[in-house]
Design goal:
Two copies of one chain form a homodimer. Chain A is α+β, with helices and mostly antiparallel strands and 455 residues long. Chain A folds into two domains: 282 residues, Zn peptidases (Aminopeptidase, 3-Layer(aba) Sandwich), CATH 3.40.630.10; 123 residues, 2-Layer Sandwich (Alpha-Beta Plaits), CATH 3.30.70.360. In chain A, 35% of the residues lie in helices and 22% in strands. In chain A, helix 1 runs antiparallel to helix 3, helix 1 packs across helix 12 and helix 3 crosses helix 12. Chains A and B meet through strand 9, strand 10, helix 5, helix 8 and strand 11 of A and strand 9, strand 10, helix 6, helix 9 and strand 11 of B. Strand 11 of chain A pairs antiparallel with strand 11 of chain B.
């Protein structure tokens, strides 16, 4: 590691310049006008990997290309799959950026640009660490495979097919993704659990068009009234989901996990204040972090029906609908939950309206073994890079690829987030700490060594 | 009446031409670009009244002018106040009109134009009948006062002040309004009861902005979830309103009324088919007509919260709101009902969200004495004009001015509708039967005689 660390030190300025070059490419995957830019970013990543010593290529898909690279010259050593993405969110609203989103600007040690933290800056740390090994000691202590996609921000439509079709080629022992956050500044973290998600939309159809509520009200079922009645039964007064069997498969948190969460600095009042919420809320018997990370939910994300404008309008609406997502935790089964939810609503829906139920793509919850050698290696590596023992946390959101890696490749994923929750990802003035960038490269370089040791 | 009837016959073609002239004026009160047209319509009505022999003037208001006219040369005879409106709804969507909305076109005995039935064609019948009396027998058997406003389609904002401030001048024995419908073709009707209305909007405020439902879901109250829970309690499974005291002041229908309603031709299956509703609905123990005309309701007219676009979006919404109206029946008190509704929601609203409750303008239910001499006179007059005994019906909608006439002037209103429910009022291809126009004039002419007789 001494030679590697020396290389990192010597080339740290160049790494920042390269990150800037990467950030200047407006690889907005959602906007077709940027198609050329997205491809340019893919080519840039391929070239970075190649110059680092990792044989790489673009793999064409029905959408944006996937960059695939591999270095497999460490026989007997573990094989690590690094996943990341080179595409970025649209930069809107542009007017709110202090400096242009695709002209990276460094202020107070933070680099501001769309994609700085999500995920260009974080992902690049692994390419740079590999380069450092391959250019200093001329080899890596592990085998690495890179899968860097260009459609993460638009649903990764072509990734699953790629992973399925290259299952053999992608065989590995563990996956590494840096696309999450530290727990807080100065408190690096490894995210070992993610909630899953099921998504659906329920629509109640009543009369064929909006009716005058004076002429017809009381003699015709009102889809808004009925929708409220149905959805109002989803939770009890304490917010516990009433869908039969909803909690049946939930794996309880281990005492050890609850202890870890409880030990994390967390200011409940500051949390409420920052969200502007009037009062604490959540399932009885669980802390706020437990509710966010390890308890399932059923949230109406949108509800709509009838008149949406200003003032009153006297109609019985023709229809009403709601978008609902449930965040799931291990070991809830997506299929079971969505079916139970549909059945719950159908059982309670009167024949005076017609129910339409539509499901959207979801993904299962995942949790990794916190006592695995990979996890131990990652903890040591993060400590090398960041100078502090990482805390083990979960995350309430969903990263579908982690479930896919488990399902298709049979491996756990180490979620090593170098960013902060406050990095404005998906918002104007996205940024990433250059200190975290360098520490991330260092941690990544250490990770290859620790994984090889089998910790 | 013989001379009057002869006059009606001799001038029927001219009356139609005059109606066409009236309909050509695009007096859309809601659209400021039509302000000049609205005024032109007011002037046209004033001139019509004046040439008929009724001294008339425009009364300026903060909005569009009110036409006021009076002929008071029948000492000792009853005084009748005729109310109508010269403004019309916007004609949109224009593309759906077969002929232009302000170029009246007669097809199959129907005159097509915006305002044909609502209310220009219907209102004009009373001016023409007065003209017939004053130009043939040179006097009227009753005193008449005309109040024709230009803001009915935009909420009659200035009418109440006008009525209040001219209370003495407007003193009368009964009011007459032709702005409703017959029961069906060939079944003329007098509407003797109207439902009232209270309107409100409830908004639940949660976090200060939409939050990521993965990161925060389960730890923060979701205003959509809570709104559904609150509104879902408004009705029991059979659609009966659960607000305490809601039905306390309801005057039950008289056996005589229920008998009258039951005798009306009404095809339940055709009713459902025409509305496109999957199944019958309504309060147990009441017929569809009773539910529509004489039972109170509580309808969500619009509900909104969170994401409104296509597909899923994983947020906990910052707020959710619903527009609610209750149709009221005699003798429910508007103030009591709206207060109970608010209290019902507040009692059930948890402290995790902040409730905002906003009320809109409403009006009380009204019912007229079906055995009064005025009603008897009206029944006779309608029979003269339409050749059939009118049925006595109620109406589920609200006509606020009827309540105001009762409250301010202390009089009942005779709602003599010459139109049909199918006249497309407020819709493209609005029309009015010219036969009904002439019969309406005839009935109106007979009404003055019958009212004078004291029937």
């Amino acid at each position: 590691m001494t030679e590697v660390e020396a290389f990192l030190k010597d080339h740290s300025d160049r790494f920042v310049e390269e990150l800037k070059t990467f950030l200047r490419i407006p690889s907005v995957s959602a906007v077709s006008a940027h198609q050329g830019d997205v491809r340019r970013a893919a080519e840039w990543v391929r070239d970075q990997l190649t110059q680092a010593g990792v044989a790489s290529d673009l793999v064409e898909t029905d959408g944006h290309p996937i960059v695939y690279g591999e270095w497999l010259k460490a026989p007997g050593a573990p094989t690590v799959l690094v996943y990341g993405h080179y595409d970025v969110q649209p930069p809107d609203p542009l007017a709110e950026w202090k400096t242009p989103p695709f002209e990276p600007d460094v202020r107070d040690g933070l680099i501001y640009a769309r994609g700085a933290t999500d995920d260009k800056g974080q992902m690049l740390t692994h390419i740079k660490s590999v380069e450092a090994w391959l250019k200093s000691v001329k080899s890596l202590p592990v085998n690495v495979k890179f899968v860097i996609e260009g459609e993460e921000e638009v649903g990764s439509d072509n990734l699953d097919r790629f992973l399925e079709s290259r299952k053999e080629q992608l065989k590995c022992d563990v996956a590494v993704v840096s696309d999450t956050s530290q727990y807080a500044p100065g408190i690096p973290a490894i995210t070992y659990g993610l909630r899953g998600i099921v998504a659906c939309e329920v629509t109640l159809h009543g009369p064929s068009q909006d009716l005058h509520s004076g002429i017809f009200g009381g003699s015709i079922a009102n889809p808004c009234n009925i929708l409220a009645k149905l959805l109002g039964q989803l939770h009890d007064d304490k917010g516990r989901v009433q869908v039969p069997g909803f909690y049946d498969d939930v794996t309880d948190l281990l005492p050890e996990e609850r202890k870890q969460f409880a030990a994390l600095p967390f200011d409940e009042q500051e949390f409420l204040r920052s969200l502007g919420a009037p009062a604490p809320f959540g399932e009885a018997g669980y802390s706020t972090l437990e509710r966010r990370w390890a308890r399932p939910t059923c949230d109406i994300n949108g509800i709509t029906g009838g008149y949406q404008g200003e003032g009153p309008k006297t109609i019985v609406p023709a229809k009403a609908s709601a978008k609902i997502t449930c965040r799931l935790v291990p070991a809830q089964q997506n299929e079971t939950i969505i079916k139970s939810l549909e059945q719950f609503l159908r059982d309670r829906c009167p024949s005076t309206v017609r129910m339409e139920f539509k499901t959207y793509h979801g993904c299962p919850a995942t949790v990794c073994d916190i006592h695995s050698p990979f996890m131990k290696a990652a903890k040591k590596a993060v400590k090398v890079g960041f100078g502090a023992e990482p805390v083990l946390i979960r995350e309430g959101g969903s990263i579908p690829v982690v479930g896919t890696f488990k399902a298709v490749l049979g491996v756990d994923t180490l979620l090593l987030g170098w960013g902060q929750n406050t990095d404005n990802l998906h918002s104007p003035n996205e940024h990433f700490s250059l200190d975290a960038f360098h520490r991330g490269i260092h941690a990544s370089a250490a990770l290859w060594a620790e994984l090889a040791k089998g910790s």
